[in-house]
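Q: A reviewer asked whether we had any structural model of the full assembly, not just the individual parts. We don't, so I'm hoping you can provide one. Inputs are below.
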Amino acid sequence: MSPVLQEVVITLLKVVILTQLLLGLFSFMTLAERRLLAFMQFRLGPNRTGPFGLFQPIADGIKLFFKEELMPDSATAWAFFAAPIVAVTAAFMAIATVPYGPEFTIPGTSFKVTPQLADLDVGILFIFAVTSLGVYSVVLAGWSANSKFSLLGGLRSSAQMFSYELSLGMSFVGVIMLAGSFKISDIVATQAGGFWNWNVMPWKQGLAAVVYFISAAAEVSRTPFDLPEGETELVAGYHTEYSSMKFALMQMAEYINMITVSVLTANLFLGGWNPGLPFLPTSGLWGLAYFAAKVLFVLFVFIWMRGTLPRFRYDQLMHFGWKVLIPLAALNVLGTATLIAVFKW
Amino acid sequence: MTIPLLHALYLSAALFTIGMVGVFLRRNVITILMCIELMLNAVNLAFIAFSRASGSLDGQILVFFVMTVAAAEAAVGLAVVIALQRHRDSLDLDAFNLLKW
Amino acid sequence: MALFDRLLLFLVSEAFLFYVFSGTAVASALCVVLQRNPMHSAFALIVTFCSLSAVYGLLGAPFIAALQIIVYAGAIMVLFLFVLMLLNVKREEPSGGRALKTAAILLGALFALQVVGTLAGFGLSPAANYDSSTQSFARLLFGTRFLYVFEATSILILAALVGAVVVAKKDL
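A: Here is a predicted structure for the entire assembly that you could use as a starting point for your response.
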């Protein structure tokens, strides 16, 4: 097999595996969220379809597949169709360039594989750019349906998303300054050695980690920032008029965004695929296991937040984003720059 | 296969001309502002092509500043459009003719 | 297999992708100018910006490509869409006069011919060692030559911020 064809086949295989993994994780997340929320609320959640309710996502998928596809008569057809497509495209594009583990050799062969689709020089900037394109799905969905609830929900939701984008961007400037590179593999490499090197520690980028996590929760519209889903206020916000597969696509985009944010938190702040303690094995597949554990932990914290915290009001949300998080993030950048310049931190 | 840089400059000229004709032909103020942004982008493309040809990064630095200025200009221009709409209740450029003789 | 390899290499080559994205950019730019509804023009402009970002990346400017998406497609166009939705802009009626239309297109064609004629004599070729990494970009931007301009730009943005808020407010 010629090297060119080999390269193409490997990349296609990586794409297929990654997509299947993400879709599997998405369906597992829907079930895990319902069961964990139920346990937190002292009830059981779906446990009838299959053992421990494991077939519930399949049942949900079949139900959504057979629902009737509706579109309001006065809606703008192309925009109505384009909104879920833009949402899913932006979500998958963002997660394509993230590394999932160190370079490992497949056991039994001498074949080296890097679990990353594309290692860009401006890696983290590209992810930030693509997530800022996710706002358009909200704008398109809110405007195209030609309904008051959708428009107001779309305006509010997109205002929330790009207000928190500023603090999101500034919070990982500190991480980039410490690592000296935009590549995520370099940032993970600076956190090797032990959990005291992780960027979540207060003496490294603790404040940035907190600001990043809160901004990311607001960016993916998770509770306590899930104003679009406040049924008593806006029916269902910008996805009021969506049904069946388009609604499923928008929900999938939201969960994939949440997974992207968890993966980035694990890579930027929790040490990526490095084990926290020096005596643990670090080769190949162990790195993937540590990484998976960290991502699942961050996802659990997201579900935990949803079960515990009440929802923000819109003006409280705007005040918090502009007047609290952005100054904190700017302070973090200033402090990190001073420490690096003066003390060679 | 490398990109012929002359074709990048032709693309820049084409986009600039399209934006220019848009400013001449359209009547809605916001569409005219969008065509101005298109012209600015054509200029950015020319800067980057020349930077690639000359080997120095000065062209990219200038693109950085053009982007910043374009963002500031879009913000203030749209604020002016909102004030105009509030005053005249029309976004047609022909409606603002008080200074015509 | 050699033919198949060459086909694959051609499909991912810089030149082919450049022509694809420049075609998209020109097509969506024409849509911006020719669409009657300003919302449709705005979405066509977003497609133009994304295509141009790909072209910048192919021309060896990855940082500027990312900035194009973040600043233009991600912030400026969202501002445009917000203003369009706030002011509830409807379809534009056809403008007056065939004379004006023909004059505008004629002037545009003349300008384009002039630019192409000036450019045709250039013999541009990519420079040998083009260091377009972000580190060298930052070193130049914060160096002695452009530092003052950089700080002045931040004051410009502050002025634009205050100005936009003041001009658009209903009552001070």
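A: Points you may want to mention in the reply: The longest strand of chain A covers residues 104-105. The CA atoms of residues 127 and 286 of chain A lie 26 Å apart.
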